[in-house]
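Re: weekly structure request thread

Next one in the queue (71 aa):
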Amino acid sequence: MVYKINPEKCLKCGLCVTQDCPEKAFVVVDKATENDGLTLYTVKIDEHKCTSCDTCFSHEWWCPAKAIVKG
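Done, posted below.
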């Protein structure tokens, strides 16, 4: 079972994209800059690339909102 990002929990911080996913499964779908300069990222996990290796899920610093869930 592959991992997914729960959009209700996601803070859109983009931290997951900067981490070193062994399969490069994190994909930026949209990137928006707010008026105050804050950049928000809409990210998904490519289900064809994700191998459920647990790297992103087993390290809490990957997602401070714990939005990465088993799909």
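The radius of gyration is 12 Å. The chain has a mean pLDDT of 93.
Next request, please.
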